[in-house]
Amino acid sequence: MNEDLLARLQQFLFREDNESLVGKPATDEEIAAAELELGVPLDKEYIQFIKRFGGAYAGLSIHAFTNGSSIGRETVTELTKSFRADFMGTSAGDMLNRACVFSIDGSGDPIFLDSEGRVIICYHDTGESKILANSLTELIEQHFDEW
Q1: How far apart (Å, rounded) are the C-alpha atoms in residues 13 and 58?
Q2: In whole angstroms, what is the distance from residue 87 CA to residue 129 CA?
Q3: Which residues pair with 34 in a beta bridge?
Q4: Are 54 and 67 in contact, with CB atoms under 8 Å apart?
Q5: Which of 36, 39, 121, 134 has the most CB atoms around its CB within 10 Å?
Q6: What integer pLDDT is reported at residue 15 of this predicted model?
Q7: Tens digit of pLDDT for each residue in 18-45?
């Protein structure tokens, strides 16, 4: 993730009126435990984000281990395991078994990072998936606006 984007996020998230949008930074131990439990390595850009901001808002909610109060309580591990169970036995389920769900859209569809660092959404009503961005940085740049 480039330093300019990180600086913009830092300035926005650490404003006094935005304290509910930023969580507690993730630790190396939390990251290692999640990778072990999920059986996949977490994306490097995602790790960079959550080590700085925890679960936070960046144009969309990005869940980690301790999220800002406006993000919701679900951890990335809980989201991933829940959606893996929901999509079990489908082609989307196969994709989710090799991915980490870090967000949910307004319809309840999982947004995840695949092993190549691409951001993908899977539609629960059809089981179809769509690439939203080629990286977490690209996704944030598409959606983040400092207001």
Answers
A1: 9
A2: 12
A3: none
A4: yes
A5: 121
A6: 93
A7: 999 999 999 999 999 999 999 999 999 9
Q: What are phi and psi of 115, to 5 degrees?
A: -65, -15
**pTM beyond 0.70, yes or no:** yes
Q: What domains can you pick out in the chain, each with its CATH number?
A: 3-143 (3.40.1580.10)
For the chain, the DSSP string reads --HHHHHHHHHHHTSGGGGGG--BPPPHHHHHHHHHHHTSPPPHHHHHHHHHHSBEESSSEE--SBB-TTT-S--HHHHHHHHHHHTTTSHHHHHHTTSEEEEE-TTS-EEEE-TTS-EEEE-TTT--EEEEESSHHHHHHHH----
Give the type of residue at 79: L
